[in-house]
Amino acid sequence: ILNVEQSPQSLHVQEGDSTNFTCSFPSSNFYALHWYRWETAKSPEALFVMTLNGDEKKKGRISATLNTKEGYSYLYIKGSQPEDSATYLCAFDDMRFGAGTRLTVKP
Amino acid sequence: EAQVTQNPRYLITVTGKKLTVTCSQNMNHEYMSWYRQDPGLGLRQIYYSMNVEVTDKGDVPEGYKVSRKEKRNFPLILESPSPNQTSLYFCASSSGTDTYNEQFFGPGTRLTVL
User: Fold this and answer.
1) Which chain A residues contact residue B109 at CB under 8 A?
2) Residue A1 pLDDT > 50, yes or no?
């Protein structure tokens, strides 16, 4: 089983802070890296799919980068808001998920 | 509305009593899969299906069965549930079988096996 690691496990920030977290994955045989946002009591929802080394994706205040050679992706949130509170999951080839980073944004 | 539905949403049962969790999608997706989510672990794939009558094991298939007789439905069957199958289960579907297609998840089924 390929290991997908996410860090930190949880994160507490104040409203307005910018934050980032990491997804590490095996760099061999790479096809795609997915980010999902999972709010409590809801279903995970897709944020980004990234396929090329150096990819950068952005959706509003959330952006992600990809380094397939070293096997990591960063997710950035600029100016965090309480509604950003969720667990952020990454998935390698969309079937191997990390345990997630649980973000809490305090007003 | 495009969606993946699961039933039941919550289920408490006893060891050994067969149960089925249904999953249905209305997006004409080819690919469907089942995951379980346990505290401290990521979503772990149980089974997946690339099309009708085609199913394959994921990472944790022991104790589970699936079938894909119609494109829209992908039920998860626990023939003899055990307490270690207590978990949160998600069904998901995707428009293609390529790994860059995003998955759409159902609302989840919280199963407790006593």
Assistant:
1) none
2) no
